[in-house]
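Hi V.,

Quick status before I head out on leave. The structure for the redesign project is tokenized and pasted below; the design run finished overnight.
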């Protein structure tokens, strides 16, 4: 080792340290090993990021050279009604799908964490939907959401018919036991109950809610992460809670949730990013955001401007606006949730 150090500290004629031949070979080998990563970093990450920022300041149609226009694209964005429509739809979706997905994932994980026989099979069943390709998922839900022949509306009408039958039976029983007027009124009302499911994808009032329902289909990925976090909850905390006479809900609130709070925060951040980048399913199920652009999300507008409309500069400006929005929402979520997140061994 002493010989190596001596060779590595040789100096050239100007008195500067000179790298020995062995050290140079080691450095060259290291650079060769990391060269694929360097190519990916500079060629596939840093350059596209810098290029997109430059193009956001240009009028660029891909087919012609970019022309610098300064902040013109950003000024046009904030006066574009379609932009605000798409942004509003995206916020609407995120504000509903994100909390519902978090609550459902945690609830399913708690259920799957119990010691019921065959729980491995149940865990697999809940996780499998998250592995389905998005296009196949969209086609499946097109059939489920069909207003006339969809499975979901059939279930709604069938359950409503069953409830109407039970109410009619109650009215008949009341009529036969001396309450004729009220019983006949209940039976007459039950005969007029013919509830049909909503036109999910053809009514602007329901289209975004349909995609919120669809988002719950893929909570299996988050469920697996929560299950991993639940395995790390110390058993002695539950034992201490049992000794104090804590109920099931009190143990969940004061033991389980604080212990897995870092996992909840992690899934929250992933959910924020995913919600604002929601694209594939609505692109297949609601082309051009139909009906009436009620399902036109931010990522769809960005894609349309970049490729079909060949307005790459405008799309690049949208991409940077989206980046700023996601960053601000992420920082706000980290700031607001930091005092509620407890790490093991932390103060």
């Amino acid at each position: 080792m002493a010989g190596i150090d001596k060779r590595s500290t040789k100096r050239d004629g100007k008195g500067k340290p000179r790298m020995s031949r062995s050290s140079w070979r080691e450095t060259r080998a290291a650079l060769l090993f990391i060269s694929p990563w360097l190519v990916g970093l500079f060629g596939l990450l840093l350059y596209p990021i810098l290029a997109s920022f430059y193009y956001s300041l240009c009028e660029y149609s891909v087919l012609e050279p970019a022309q610098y226009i300064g902040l013109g694209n950003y000024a046009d964005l904030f006066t574009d009604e379609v932009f605000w429509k798409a942004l509003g739809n995206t916020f609407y979706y995120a504000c509903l799908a994100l909390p519902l997905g978090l609550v459902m994932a945690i609830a399913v994980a708690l259920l799957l964490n119990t010691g019921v026989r065959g729980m491995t099979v149940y865990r697999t069943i809940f996780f499998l939907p998250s592995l389905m390709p998005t296009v196949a998922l969209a086609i499946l839900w097109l059939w489920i959401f069909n207003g006339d022949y969809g499975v979901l509306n059939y279930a709604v009408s069938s359950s409503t018919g069953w409830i109407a039958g039970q109410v009619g039976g109650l009215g008949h029983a009341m009529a036969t036991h001396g309450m004729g007027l009220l019983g006949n009124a209940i039976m007459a009302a039950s005969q007029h109950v013919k509830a049909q499911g909503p036109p999910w994808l053809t009514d602007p009032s329901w289209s975004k809610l349909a995609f919120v329902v669809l988002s719950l289909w893929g909570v299996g990925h988050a469920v697996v992460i929560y299950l991993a976090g639940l395995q790390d909850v110390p058993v002695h905390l539950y034992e201490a809670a049992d000794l104090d006479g804590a109920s099931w809900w009190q143990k969940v609130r004061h033991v389980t949730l604080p212990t897995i709070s870092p996992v909840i925060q992690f899934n929250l951040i992933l959910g924020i990013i995913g919600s604002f980048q929601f694209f594939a399913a609505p692109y297949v199920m609601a082309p051009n955001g139909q009906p009436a652009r009620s399902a036109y999300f931010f990522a769809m507008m960005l894609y349309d401007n970049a490729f079909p409309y060949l307005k790459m500069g405008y799309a690049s400006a949208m991409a940077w606006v989206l980046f700023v929005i996601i960053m601000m929402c992420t920082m706000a979520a980290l700031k607001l949730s930091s005092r509620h997140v407890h790490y093991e061994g932390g103060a």
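Above is the designed sequence. The longest helix spans residues 21-55.

G. will cover questions while I'm gone.

Best,
W.
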